[in-house]
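Example 3.2
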Amino acid sequence: MSAAREQVLARIRSALGRGEPDPERTTELRDRIARHPRHIEPAFDETPRQRFRQKLEAAEASFVELDTLDAVAAEVERYLEAQSEEKSIATSGDKLLRAIEWPASIDAQPWSAGNDRKVSVTAAYCGIAETGSLLLVSGEQNPTRLNYLPDYHIVVIEAEQLVLRMEDAWDSLRASTRQMPRSVNFISGPSKTADVEQTVEYGAHGPRCLHVILVG
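Structure, written as tokens:
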């Protein structure tokens, strides 16, 4: 736990009139979280890959499947040309994306302060077949702003990262880290709203286009 987070929790405990957390109580709570019950799980006939694609496209995201990671750069270039966008992207520092060799025709720059490009390329922690959602976690190499500020958000995910249900995604995340990320985001399509006269508008509070590339 970071020092800043511990200071915040210490102030909360002080305001509530509580002392340091009791080790036995802490163990009890951790066990309770580990034994959380699974709720009703709707059945579906499609394969996880089919379901994932159907749900994403129903939410107005675009989707493509590639055999290998080597084909990702060409697909990103094709997508940018189809959108009539400049071939200028900001990328997260995820290990999966670092393995991609970007051609000279694409100006790919790691995200940094002030790098406010219209297109971002990030990786997802996993994809949830049941809902067609992407789970993205924040971290030193994965700034959350890349998920929400650019107009176009391209997400690369490997087929082995697909899970059936939301509960499976949480189980995987809990098992893979000792401490939860500062931010966990679920994205199920481009940003949209119908608040004004029930007319759907895209890009209201995030990217107006989401393009998912499934590899493998």
